[in-house]
Amino acid sequence: MKVRPRDFPREDSARASSAASILARDALPALLAALRTRGYQLVGPTLRDGAIAIDRIDGESDLPIGWTEEQDGGRYRLRRREDVAVFGYTVGPWSWKTFLVPPETKLVTAKRDAGGAFTVDAGLAEEPKYAFIGVRSCELRAIQVQDRVFLEGPYVDRGYRLRREAAFIVAVNCTQAAPTCFCVSMRTGPHHETGYDLVLTEIMEGQRHEFLVDAGTERGRELIDELALRPAMIADVEGAEAAIDRAVAQNGRKVVTDGMRELLYRSYEDPRWDDVAKRCMSCGNCTMVCPTCFCTTVEDAADLAGKEATRTRKWDSCHTLEFSYIHGGSLRPNARSRYRQWMTHKLATWIDQFGVAGCVGCGRCITWCPAGIDITEELAAIRRSEEARHGGH
Amino acid sequence: MESQLLESEQTSLADPMATRPFRVAKNQREIDGTHTIELRPADGDGFRFAPGQFTMMYAFGIGEVPISISGDPARAGTLEQTIRSVGAVSAALCKVRRDDTVGIRGPFGTPWPVVPAVGNDVMLIAGGIGLAPLRPAIYHLLRNRARYGKISILYGTRQPADILFRSELESWRGRFDLEVLVTVDSAGRDWRAPVGPVTTLIPRAAVREGIAMVCGPEIMMRFTVQTLLDRGFDADQIFLSMERNMKCGIGFCGHCQMGPAFVCKDGPVFAYPDIEKLMRVRGI
Ligand SMILES: Cc1cc2nc3c(=O)[nH]c(=O)nc-3n(C[C@H](O)[C@H](O)[C@H](O)COP(=O)(O)OP(=O)(O)OC[C@H]3O[C@@H](n4cnc5c(N)ncnc54)[C@H](O)[C@@H]3O)c2cc1C
Ligand code: SF4
Ligand code: SF4
Ligand code: FES
Asked: What is the pTM assigned to this prediction?
C-alpha cells in the first residue's frame, strides 16, 4: 500500500485520513493477543543464533525490539539500535517459505503386507493456521511468486494451498532497508500494494512511537474494528510516508531491469560465468535463503522389516551436482553451468515460466554467500561484458 | 483431443504428490536388463493416457522415477511400462512379480502429435530404449491406419541382442502398409540388415516429408534432427521427447528445467523449434 492522503488537501492535515487507523505502540500486544484468540499460531521475527530469524513466537516479548543488523556481501552482524523500534531490522537468513513450504514435508507413508502389496496413506494432516507478523513488501511479493508455482500450475499443491489460505498476514511497510536491498529496482517495495490482511507502518518521531495501520481484507478490517483504534490524521499518514521514503533512499543496491531477460538469454556463453565459477563454492546458501527458490527433492526411507516406507520432500538446490543427474552423469557438471542456471532462472527464465521475475531484490543471497557473490554485480558485469563485445551498443 | 480429456482429470483436488497403488499383472523380460510391466489400478478405477505421456513409478521404500508409458492407449485400465535397469529404482522395478504393488502418479506430460499428424506421412525414429515411449504412438497410428499417409519406423540400437520388441517389429515389418527399418551399431556376420547409426536409415525411408517423432539419447536426437532438416523436413514438424531429472512430474520440484521449459509439464514431447536454441547450449 502506498499510503497517500489522496482525498484531502494538504492544509487539512488535522482531519481524519480515509481508512487508516493508529495503533499505539503499547497496543501491539493486544493485536497479537487478538490473533491468538482467533486460533492463529504467531510467526514473526525473533533473535536466534546471532541473527533475526522468522519463527514461531508467543507474543511481543519475542520480537527483536531495539535490534537491527549490519549486512553486506558475505557479512551479517546483529547490532543494538539506539531506539526501541520493533521492526527496525531488515531481512535475515529465514523467510516465510519456511512455513509455507517447510524444509521437510512428509508426503506419504506406504504400508506393505506379507504378500508384497502396499497401501498408501497421503497423511492429509490438518495444516497449521499461521499469523505472519512483520512481512515486508519484498517478502509478500516472494510469497506471491511462490503462489504461482504451487497454486497456478496445472496442479495445485494441496498442503501449500491450505497453509497459504489460512495464513493471516500482518505486513509492515519497510522503514529500514539494508545496503544489500534492491527492492526499488525490482519494483517490489518498500511499500506494500496488495495481498496483506493488515499493514503497519512504524512511526517514531521524538517521543512518539505508533503504528499507522490499514486493512487489506475483511478479516483485517474486523480486527481493527475490534481493537477500537483511533482514526489516523493526515499528518500521521505523511509521517508514515516519510518513514518509507527513508527506506527507498537506503536501498543500497541497484539493477537495470530493462532488457534484463533478453540480455541473459543472449549471454549463455558469456565469459563472466567462468569468472563467477572461480568464486562460487556451490554451497547452495543462496537458494536456501532465497524467499522464492522452490526446488525440492524427495527422500525415500523404509524400516528394517520392509513393512513401512516414507517419502519426504526436502528443499533442494540447483547448485548441487545431483540436481541435474541423469543416468550417465550430471547435465550441469560444473559451477559455471550451475551458477548460470541459478541466476538465469531468477532474472530471465522465471519471467517466461511465471510472468514475473524470480528475484524480489531482498538481498539475502548477497549477504549469505560465503564468497560475497552479488547478483546485482554479476548482472551488471554481464551487461558490461556484452557492451564491450559490441563496442558499446 | 486426448490432452483435453486428461486436463479435466488433472484438476481434481487429490494430492498430486500422493502415489496410487497399482497391482502388477505381468512382468515380461524383453531383452537383457529391460522389462515390460503390466499394471492395473488397485482401486479398480480406470487409467487413460495419450501416447508420449509418462508416469512417476514408485518402488516401495526405494524411490520414484519417470518412465514413459509403452502400452496401447486403447486398452483402458491397463498400464504397460518398459524399464531398463540402470540404477536402484529401475532395477527394483524390473524385479517386481505378479501381484506386487507399484506406486503410480500420472499420466503426465505432453503427447506425441498423433492428432495433428492425421492426413500426413509419419516417420518414427527411435534409439535404444527410446522405442518404448514411441510404441503407444505406433499402436495408435496402426489402429487408425486409414487416417494417416505413409508410415516409416526407423530403429537403431547397439547390437542385435538389444533389439527391443523384436517380435513385434518383425510382425509390423510383415505388414504391407508400414515400413520398418532396423540398424545396429555393430553386429556379427549373421546380421543381414544395416549397420550404422539410425540417421543412415533416414535417406532410405519411404517417408520423405510429413511429421517426424524422435526419441532416444539426446546426442542421437541432435544428429537425427540435422539429418531430417537436410532431407527437407520442416523444423516445426519434428517432435522430440526430452529427458531430465524429475522429482515431481508436475512443476513443483524444479529439477527438470531446461532454460524456461519444465520438461515435465511443457514436455517431454516438444516441437523442435521450441527447444532448438536450448539444445545448442551445453549444461543448460
Ligand atoms: C520423461 C521421461 C521418460 C522416461 N522413460 C523411460 C522409459 O520408458 N524407460 C526407461 O527405462 N527409462 C526411462 N526414463 C529414464 C529413467 O527415468 C531413468 O533411467 C531412471 O530415473 C533411473 O533411475 P535409477 O534410480 O534406476 O538410476 P540411478 O542412476 O541410480 O539414478 C539415481 C536418480 O537419478 C535420477 N535419474 C537417473 N537417470 C535419470 C534419467 N535418465 N531421467 C530422469 N531421472 C534420472 C532419478 O531420480 C534416479 O532415482 C525416462 C526419463 C524421463 C525423464
Ligand atoms: S534458482 Fe535454482 S534452486 Fe532456485 S528455483 Fe531456480 S532452479 Fe530452483
Ligand atoms: S535472488 Fe537473492 S535478492 Fe533475489 S529474491 Fe532471491 S535471495 Fe533475494
Ligand atoms: S519434474 Fe519436478 S518440476 Fe518438472
From this structure: 0.94
